[in-house]
Amino acid sequence: MQRPPQQPPAPARAATARTRAERLVWEDRARRIEAARRDACDPRRWQSQHGRTAIRAALWLSGRVDGRPGPFRSLSEAEQRHVATVAAGALGRVESVLDLADVRREPTSEHPCQCGGTIEVYGGAGAQPVARCKSCGALWFENGVIAA
Question: Rounded distance, CA 104 to CA 97, Å?
């Protein structure tokens, strides 16, 4: 995704420009050296050794997906889909761990209701978790049965 830094021109011995042409060559050389230095130090360039945090990585990837300019090529469709898939999985795990999502789950058939029906568990996003039998309609919450 990221192109390599620009390479400065090869070293040359110091000299004094005697003609206009020599002066232009030396000015161009100085300009290329400065451009390579700026490119290597570009803050938009991913630095794998310094400041690697999840927030910085997410912001950097967001910039790539949004197509912001910088020292990198555009993402292909496959790379954009991969970033979206990984981000959606990470979001699901964070919501699950922090109980932020309003998700409905059905435990395995190893835990049926007394009537033999399937139990559906829902809650999250700050709501009290509730379990409901899809067959008989019995409801349970953390402290016991609400209604049967």
Answer: 15
pLDDT digit string, tens, across residues 33-68: 898 888 888 877 777 666 678 788 888 888 888 888
Q: How far is the C-alpha of 94 from the C-alpha of 85, rounded, in Å?
A: 14
Residue 121's nearest CA partner among 102, 147, 135, 136 is: 102
Angstrom CA distances, 21 to 45, 125, 128, 129, stand at 35, 71, 79, 79
Residue 69 backbone dihedrals phi, psi, to 5 degrees: -70, 155
Q: What angle do CA 6, 64, 32 make, to 5 degrees?
A: 15
From first CA to last CA, the distance across the chain in angstroms is 58
- DSSP secondary-structure letter at 142? T
Model confidence, pTM: 0.50
